[in-house]
Design brief:
This protein is mostly helical and 283 residues long. It is built from 10 helices and 5 strands, in the order E-H-H-H-E-H-E-H-E-E-H-H-H-H-H. A hairpin with a 6-residue loop joins strand 4 and strand 5. Helix 1 crosses helix 2 and helix 1 runs parallel beside helix 3. The longest helix has 44 residues.
Length: 283
């Protein structure tokens, strides 16, 4: 693979959504970047939001959604481009067990029309539930150790297929290979000094996600402040141009009185009233 291939879709471990764009804008981004018209891109985005159950959240921003909802946005953002090959790098690893099970069921329904899917996971049950073939790799440097054919019938329901006798048999066989790999890794690293990654506290991933959320919210606040500032600047430029044009008599002050004169007149009405009496009394 060399360069950007439009036939390939990628779902990352961390949600790769644009925090400053709404849910609908996030999903429509792919078709727009690929040259689709705005109306066609947003029509397709609305359809995919309906498919992933987020049709009522199109105007929300990612920081307003739960982890599972953000993952649905990422899935719709990828599937809308109709990839021929879909690469997924532990997309559900940060979710709790219940949400992960629901997302696995949704994924099984969504990727029915995708040509090929390469799904990386450390969860044995997840691999068996989703896959047609499971590739077991050795410890680093990773090489292919064995390929298991998953002959469980489709369509599959995650919460039910785990109790299938064939599922249990496949799980036992693969775990035998994984257990040997884990033992070899533990023996190989027993005498190694602790690395910075091993010293990392268990909560560091959650802390990193929280930091991403704070950065996203900060960017949104900065964007809103920038929009307000630009609006004020536009208003100042318009009023200033109007004032200068009226003073230089580029425009007829009879029809377009100077802004300063209009402001003075309004202040005079509030202070001294009009010919009909005090302004507040008239109101």
């Amino acid at each position: 693979m060399d360069g950007i291939d439009p036939r390939i879709g990628f779902v990352f471990q961390v949600d790769a959504v644009f925090p400053w764009r709404s849910v609908l804008d996030n999903v429509a981004a792919g078709p727009l970047y690929r040259g689709r018209s705005k109306s066609a891109a947003y029509d397709e985005a609305n359809k995919w939001l309906h498919r992933v159950g987020l049709d009522k959240f199109g105007k929300h921003y990612p920081h307003q959604l739960s982890g599972g909802m953000r993952k649905r946005v990422a899935l719709a953002q990828t599937f809308i481009n109709k990839p021929e090959i879909l690469l997924m790098d532990e997309p559900f690893s940060a979710l709790d067990m219940q949400t992960r099970t629901l997302m696995q069921d949704e994924l099984l329904q969504l990727w029915a029309g995708v040509g090929s899917v390469v799904f990386v996971t450390h969860d044995l049950e997840e691999a068996i539930v989703l896959a047609d073939r499971v590739f077991v790799l050795t410890a680093r440097p990773a090489t292919l150790k064995k390929v298991y054919e998953i002959d469980l019938p489709r369509p599959r329901v995650t919460s039910e297929v785990r109790y299938d006798p064939r599922f249990i048999e496949i799980s036992r066989d693969i775990w035998h290979d994984l257990r040997e790999k884990c033992r070899s890794v533990n023996q190989g690293t027993a005498n190694m000094s602790t690395t910075p990654q091993q010293m990392m506290p268990p909560g560091i991933e959650a802390a990193s996600l929280a930091q991403v959320e704070r950065v996203a919210q900060k960017k949104i606040r900065q964007r809103h402040a920038l929009v307000i500032t630009l609006r004020i600047l536009v208003l100042v430029v318009v009023l200033g141009g109007w004032e200068v044009s009226a003073r230089l008599k580029w425009i007829d002050p009879f029809f377009f009185s100077m802004p300063s004169a209009i402001f003075d007149q309004i202040v005079d009405w509030f202070v001294n009233g009009t010919s009909q009496g005090p302004l507040l009394q008239q109101v």
